[in-house]
């Protein structure tokens, strides 16, 4: 089967993704209620009892809102680095000692035949990370909540077959939006979120003939639209000399209110 995944929900209202292969199923973040996560998984013919663990990117509520409840309901181990555990412990309630698992930034763990590598990212959290998943020659990378595309992140995801990458906001929409200026400055800063333009610029440097699909994720409901994000990302890539045919490379959508279809990383 290789690696398959579905982005259950993506955005400021809650984030959760399931990644699985032949023998392992992992939830990345649990930023919605346990009930809602169950509903979204059921839409993709999956049960919480089939999960083997939960990986946490960082402690913001839209990534851990249902974390404690899901872990307790299905007796699941939670994997996060030491600083993230310290930052989120009071928010997620009591977790069984055996389910508190430390996975430090940059560490690689084997989950049977699924290998997972974490990598540090730039965001205003204790020690935020992204993850790359490997099964044989297949690679999936998940990187959202990025203030900017650092060399470290670029190296970590550069040879992924498929990526889930943040395209959070349109810069002009954000500047004209209702948020106070200090919030806008945080979002646009190096510890904030990746804009459509920045995502396109990063992808223009990452494209090497290996990556087949990029899912644009964590879109702001107030300051972005999916069609605008796709258009801006594509234009930013082309302005930097990165042209592609739709048959060779696709920009794919994620949603805040429904899961993406299952995608096989090995699919053309």
From TrEMBL:
InterPro entries cross-referenced by the UniProt entry: Metallo-B-lactamas (IPR001279), RibonucZ/Hydroxyglut_hydro (IPR036866), WalJ/YycJ-like (IPR052533)
Catalytic activity: 3',5'-cyclic UMP + H2O = UMP + H(+); 3',5'-cyclic CMP + H2O = CMP + H(+)
Domain Metallo-beta-lactamase span(s) in chain numbering: 13-218
A Pfam family matched in the record: Lactamase_B_2
PANTHER family named among the record's database cross-references: EXODEOXYRIBONUCLEASE WALJ, METALLO-HYDROLASE YYCJ-RELATED
Its biological purpose: Counteracts the endogenous Pycsar antiviral defense system. Phosphodiesterase that enables metal-dependent hydrolysis of host cyclic nucleotide Pycsar defense signals such as cCMP and cUMP.
Entry protein name: MBL fold metallo-hydrolase
Organism: Paenibacillus gallinarum
């Amino acid at each position: 089967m290789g690696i398959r995944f579905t982005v259950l929900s993506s955005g400021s209202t809650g984030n959760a993704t399931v990644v699985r292969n032949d023998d392992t199923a992992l939830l990345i973040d649990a930023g919605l209620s346990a009930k809602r996560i169950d509903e979204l998984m059921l839409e993709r013919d999956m049960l919480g009892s089939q999960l083997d663990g939960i990986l946490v990117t960082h402690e913001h509520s839209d990534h851990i809102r249902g974390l404690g409840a899901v872990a307790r309901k299905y007796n699941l181990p939670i994997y996060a680095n030491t600083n993230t555990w310290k930052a989120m412990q009071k928010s997620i309630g009591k977790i069984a000692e055996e389910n508190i698992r430390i996975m430090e930034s940059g560490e690689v763990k084997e989950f049977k035949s699924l290998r997972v590598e974490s990598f540090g990212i730039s965001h205003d959290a204790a020690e935020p990370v992204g993850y790359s998943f490997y099964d044989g020659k297949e690679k999936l990378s998940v990187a959202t909540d990025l203030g900017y595309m650092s060399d470290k992140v670029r190296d970590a995801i550069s040879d992924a077959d498929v990526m889930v990458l943040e395209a959070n906001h349109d810069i002009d929409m954000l500047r004209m939006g209702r948020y106070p200026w200090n919030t806008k400055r945080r979002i646009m800063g190096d510890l904030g979120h990746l804009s459509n333009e920045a995502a396109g610029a990063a992808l223009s440097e990452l494209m090497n003939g290996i990556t087949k699909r990029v899912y644009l994720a964590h879109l702001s409901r107030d300051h972005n639209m999916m069609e605008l994000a796709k258009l801006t990302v594509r234009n930013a890539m082309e302005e930097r000399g990165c042209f592609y045919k739709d048959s060779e490379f696709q920009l794919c959508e994620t949603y805040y209110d429904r899961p993406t279809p299952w995608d096989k990383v090995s699919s053309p």
